Amino acid sequence: MQARPFDVITVTLNPAIDRTLTIPGFAVGKVNRVEQTRDMAGGKGVNVASALADFGFRVAVTGFLGRDNAASFETLFERKGIADHFVRINGSTRIGLKIVDPAQQQTTDINFPGLNASAKDFDSVMDRIAELASGKPGWVVISGSLPPGMPVETYGKLVASVKAMGWNAVVDTSGEPLGHAVAAGPSVVKPNIHELEDLAGHPLSSQPEILEAARQMLAQGVTLVAVSMGEKGALFVTKDELLTAKPPLVEVSGTVGAGDAMVAGIVASHLRGHSLPACARLATAFSLALLTCGQNDAILREEAVNPWLDRVTIH
Description:
single chain
């Protein structure tokens, strides 16, 4: 493998081909008619890589891909100029069904478990990260669920390894894997409000409660906690600063990938040396650009993102 300097490496251990079914007025237990269908190579880290490559950064991707249906991912990476360092394993990458109801502005996810990867496969991913993480330290984004059978401590091990290389780790996952990752002290964690509640073990019904849960992460070595809260915006918390980024009311075309776009915006902002208010503004603008185009082959270049910057309220 010929190494080159990268700004960002994204790690997706459980990618998916996102099959989006558009069903206006979707109803459980009834006959539903599909208005539109679309397949896209996805997975949280893949989505982050796609957005950052659009924005002009040098991006490499790794994780696990099934040999039997890797073509759609390979096509995406070639088109976006993303360096493909995924480890191929036997079988097919899972299909993730997303039922989008534009009438009710709701998305229903049906996620399959994914491929079974061995400890040897994981060691191969770790080796690729180590080889890619050369030159000036950059950012490693670790996001999404774990494949079946992989230990819940996996992301904690990944974070520790990334930190030992002198790179910054960003984590976007949930449940026990999130807890172990946070304990390893990544630079940035981006839970949504439900994931934060799950980690806290109780509902978080007020800003002081959300803030307390975020500060518990900071106490474990996290530098920035960004809690996404849907139309209420996002809370950005560091040791010394606290602010909320509130988006304007917009017509949402689809919510698929909005959290991944926010992660991409956070990383882009850090790479540019932004202040926390500027980071919160850019991260929210990334999400807005995706929300309003519905990820119909979303191209998150500056001309798509920047018009939203002045429409984000920071307080």
